[in-house]
Amino acid sequence: MLLKPIFDLLKTLSDDKQMKSGCKLIDPAEAKHLHETKLKNNYDEVLLVVHPGYGLLTNEFLYKNKQGYEKYIRELKIAINKAKENGDLVVFLVGAENIREGKSLNGLGISDADLTIATHTHGPMPVTCIETVDHNFIYQKIDSLDDLFDLFQEKSVKKVKLAGENEHQCVGLVKKYLEENDFPIEVLEEATYSPLEN
Prior knowledge:
Shape: globular
Structural class: alpha/beta
Strand order of the largest sheet: 3-2-1-6-7
CATH class: Alpha Beta
Number of helices: 6
CATH architecture: 3-Layer(aba) Sandwich
Distance between the termini: 24 Å
CATH superfamily: Isochorismatase-like
């Protein structure tokens, strides 16, 4: 049982090394979004979803029966649908390893209208280059939280609504970053999961 976490860590490090070598073969000037997202001129609000379904993607057996998890997923879907109905931009921060392995949380309705950004698998910081599920390597237009913040300012965003996992780790780090930049935020508590409280 102890060997599995060690094996998983070695696999992640190996995959990351392979991804970096693939990234060297392309021109950073070809930076693009994971999807060809059509951004409007301005958005009043953004729903920023940090590592949605992280628990299910990393340990489905443990999380699918975890107290409060199903309720959180249900509330997250409601928040996403509401944001889309309002014409708000929905931004998903998704772990690079999950993208590389083609994992996604079915039913969240992630589409090409949303902005999907690959991050470090165990943290919310965007990565510069990502291997997609069809083994293409692309440089991301947004490869830092500074870039994301600049985009929000460029699009005249007045408020960021935060949701996702984990309230005291990844979501908390993004919240702290936005607060340090005096950006108006609202944490959607019902659509945010914290294992520490469940």
